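Dear support,

I submitted the protein below through the web form. The confirmation email said the job was done, but the results page showed an empty box. After a refresh the structure appeared. I'm attaching both so you can tell me whether what I see now is the final result or a partial one.
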Amino acid sequence: MEENRSNFIWDAIEQDLAEGRYQEIHTRFPPEPNGYMHIGHCKALIMDFLTAEKYGGKCNLRFDDTNPAKEDTEYVESIKKDIHWLGFHWTGGEFYASDYYDKCYEIAEDWIRRGLAYVDELSKDEMREYRGTLTEPGKNSPWRDRPWEESLDLFRRMRAGEFPEGSKTLRAKIDMASPNIVMRDPAMYRILYKEHWRTGSKWCIYPMYDFAHPIGDALEGISHSLCSLEYEIHRPLYDWVVEKSADMLPARPRQIEFSRLNMTRTVMSKRYLRQLVEGGYVSGWDDPRMPTLSAMRRRGYTASSIRNFVSLIGMSKADSTVDFAVLEHCVRDDLGEKAPRAMAVLDPLKVVLTNWPEGETRPVTLENHPDHPEMGSRTLNFGREIYIEREDFMEVPVKKYQRMFPGNEVRLKGAYIVRCDDCVKDEAGNVTEVRCTVDLDSFSGSAGADRKIKGKTLHWVPADDCIPFEARLYEPLLSEDLDEEAEDAPDKKDFISRLNPESLTVKQGLCERFLAESETGASFQFLRTGYFCKDPDSAPDHPVFNRTVGLRDTFAKQTR
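What the results page shows now:
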C-alpha cells in the first residue's frame, strides 16, 4: 500500500484525527499461534503495520493465544520471523492475550455481579438449538435468570476445576431475540483442561476470542482495530464488551473491517493447511507449494513483491477473489530487476560440434544482467560438446518451429551460430545426440555475428564446464478453485481428492558451475526457463533450485 495512495480506512482515520476522537494512531496485529502465517494474512498484517508507520504511530504484535489445544512456540517464532522478513517491527511492543487472563477474569466476575453474565449448563447442541436461526429469534436458556450469586459461585468453581469440559460456560446476557445472531448471549468462557504453553496449569477456563480480543485492544490503548470482513457482524459485540467494561479499561478502540484476501487455486484455511502437513501431502509448512510466507520465501518470493501485491489489489469492503497470476506478476516484476542471469538446461540433450577442434575451448563472456552492467559478467569455456534443452530440438519440425532441426541455423547465447546436420538415436529410437557445424566466423561480437538467420537464440551449458542440479517445478496445489464457504466443500466433499497430482515435478538438469557456490536463497533468472531460487536441500556438488515463477506474465498481457 503506497503511502500516497489513500483508501477508505485511512480516510476514516484521518476523519477521526480531525475530529479529535484520537490523538495518536495505535494499531495491532493479532495472529493466532496455531499455524504458520500465509499469504491470506498479509493484507491485515501490512495494513496494520503500514497504517502505524503512515501516521507516526505504533503497532503492537499480540498473539491471540486463547486456545492452548492448538498453540505452539514454533508458530510464535515463525510468525515473528515472517513479520521481520516483510520489513516490519512491532514498535508498540510484543503482547499475548494470556497477559490479560487475570483482567479478563476480573471483568467476568464484575459482569456476573452486575447481571451482565451468567453460568449456563446447556450442552453445545442445546445451545445451538436455543440460539435460533437467521430468520427466527432464539429463546432464553433455563439458567439465564439464575441469581448472580449462584452464577458467581459456579464460575469460581469452574475456575477451580470442579466440572468436566463442556458442562458449563459463562455467557454474556445480551438479547436472545437480537437480529444479529452473534449478540444472542455469546459464550465468554469455556472449560478446557489443557496446559497453556505460557501460563501452564494455572487456568482450566479460557476466555473466548470475542471477549478477550476487545479487552486486549482496550488495555493496550489501541485506537483502530483493523480486521477482515467476517468480523463485521461481531463489531456490535466488540463495542458492547468495551462499553460494559469501560470503568476497567483505559481506551475505546474503533473496529474497521475490510475484505479478506482470497486467491484462485490457493488454500487459505490453516485447518486444511495443517491437514496437508500432518497427512504428508507436502514436506512441511515451508514446502514451496504451500501459501505460507516461509514456503514463499523458500520458493524465492521476495518481501517487496508481496508488499507490492497487497498495494496493487488495494483495500475495499467488497469480497473478491484475486487471480494467482497477479501475485506472480509482482514477483516476476521484482525479480526481473534484481535476479542475475544464468544458463541451465532442465532436460539436457548433448550437441556435438563436429568441426570444433578436439580438446580446444574458448572463453565466452556473458553479462549477469542485460540492464545492469554494474552486476558484472561471468565466463564459460565453450568447447566441442554442449547441452541444450531437449525441447529445443525436433527431428521433424512442426509448422513455425524456429529452434534446432536438421538444416536449420540457431544462435547459441553469447557464442556462435550453429547449423544442425543430423542426430544420433538409441535402439528405441530416442535422440541421444545432435550433431552440428559451427560457423567459426560468427562469434558473439564479431562482424559475422550480425548475419541474419531464421532460427532462435538458444541457451546452453558447456559439457566440460557444468554441474548436475535438481530443478523443482511447481504448479498450484489445487486442481480447481476451492470455495471454503460452500456447502459441499471441503468438509462434505473430500478436500484431498481435489489436490493437483502435478503440483511438483522434479527434473535432473545441468547448469553453470558457479551456481553451486551461490548462497542458499539466492535467486537467478535461468534464461528462457524462469526465475529459480537455491533451496536448503542443496549439496555442495549438486545444488537444488526451486522455480519461483516462469517468464510468461499472463497478468501483464491482460492489463496492456
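Response: this is the final, complete result; the empty box was a page-load delay. The domain at 270-340+469-558 is CATH 2.40.240.10 (Ribosomal Protein L25; Chain P).
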